[in-house]
Design a protein that fits this description.
With 358 residues, the protein is α/β, with parallel strands linked by helices. The chain has two domains: 199 residues, Spore Coat Polysaccharide Biosynthesis Protein SpsA, Chain A (Alpha-Beta Complex), CATH 3.90.550; 81 residues, no CATH class. The protein has 13 helices and nine strands. Strands 1, 2, 3, 4, 5, 6, 7, 8 and 9 form a nine-stranded mixed β-sheet that branches. Helix 5 packs across helix 11 and helix 9 runs antiparallel to helix 10.
Length: 358
């Protein structure tokens, strides 16, 4: 006799964490409705929104799981969304991402084929916002993912998919990430550490609709990403030679510091100016492909500003890492738990999926 199918077999659910996303949610939902691989179910976790996000979702036929309390963060939201479905595969899409028609099918394919237990894609090279900081941030993400290894060491939940049973077995995202951070990176590392395979599907694309400002970009890069990621690396996790922590990126950080150090040195000792020129030329040459890409996709203004922003990125990302691994950040670790960043504390937690008894 043939074995009965597991509940949810062959079904794909999309989970969208949402907080005050009325400006971008309609485009996100419209793109999902145009998807070649139509989701069997769309679940939106309304994380205490004060705008009409939930009403927009319900009007589009989306299942809304309401928080009912103060904002808890996308890690909790995604966990609750997964707990509300029995679909065999769950795709995560951020509320400010409009998926390409082929994206969901391309994410699902390696999971169905048994080649991976999870997969993720990347932003496309046509972000909605034309503001300089937004162009730089979104195009940097696209460039890094398009040049990453297909056999990934981590996960990305902006546009990613995972087997439901694998998600449950790893007890989901760490809920102590109370703001958008590296909860997806940390989950991916756990999966790979335990033998799971994750695929980076470079042609599974989504358009990012977020309008970054410089201050918002820098805060996100430092507080929500560099700090907790540096903590993971300092604990011997998440240090693969890939994506934005590859050896090439580390060399770029060294050269970025060499630029300002040699410039100061040449002011004190004029005979050292060739060193400053050589270091600057080395930094530009190492990043030439990305800078040329910025000029092609964003024009001269975005290209020139992108060079400065990328240089700043290599400075603050490397300084954050040095600050963490040097032990200077231990003052945070000794602070009362209520005052600590949930992102910094996350590696010490045991994640659970709310409402999931499995």
């Amino acid at each position: 006799m043939s074995q009965p199918e597991e509940p949810g077999a062959g079904r794909l659910a999309v989970v969208i964490p949402c907080y005050n996303a009325a400006a971008t949610l309609p485009e996100c939902l419209s793109a999902l409705q145009r998807s070649e691989r139509r989701p069997d179910e769309i679940i939106l976790f309304d994380d205490g929104s004060t705008d009409e996000s939930a009403a927009l979702a319900r009007a589009a036929g989306v299942t809304v799981v309401a928080n009912g309390k103060s904002r808890q963060g996308p890690a909790v939201g995604r966990n609750a969304g997964v707990a509300a479905t029995d679909a065999a595969i769950v795709a995560f899409v951020d509320a400010d991402v409009a998926v390409a028609p082929e994206a969901l099918g391309r994410l699902e394919a390696p999971i169905i084929a048994g080649e991976a237990v999870a997969s993720f894609g990347c932003y496309d090279d046509t972000p909605r916002s034309r503001r300089v900081a937004a162009l730089y941030a979104n195009l940097r993400h696209h460039w890094v993912h398009r040049h990453g290894r297909s056999e990934a060491f981590t996960f990305w939940s902006g546009l990613g998919a995972i087997r439901h049973d694998v998600f449950a077995a790893h007890r989901g995202f760490d809920p102590r990430f109370a703001q958008p951070s590296i909860e997806d990176v940390e989950l991916g590392i756990r999966i790979v550490e335990r033998g799971g395979r994750i695929r980076l599907v470079k042609d599974a694309l989504g358009t990012h609709c977020k309008d970054w400002g410089v201050a918002q970009l820098w805060r996100t890069d430092i507080v929500c990403r560099a700090l907790p990621w540096a903590k993971l690396i300092s604990e011997g996790r998440g240090g693969a030679d890939d994506l934005n922590i590859s050896r090439r990126e580390r060399l770029a950080a060294v050269l970025a510091h060499g630029v300002w150090l040699s410039a100061i040195a040449s002011l004190a000792v004029p005979g050292l100016w060739p060193l400053a020129v050589a270091t600057t030329a080395g930094y530009l040459a190492l990043n030439f492909g990305f800078f040329a890409f910025l000029f092609r996709r964003g024009g001269a203004r975005a290209g020139l500003a992108g060079i400065v922003l990328h240089w700043c990125y290599h400075l603050y990302a490397s300084l954050t890492y040095a600050w963490v691994v040097s032990g200077l950040s231990s003052v945070l670790a000794r602070a009362p738990s209520a005052a600590r960043s949930p992102a910094l504390a996350s590696a010490e937690s045991t994640p659970r999926v709310p409402g999931n008894g499995r």
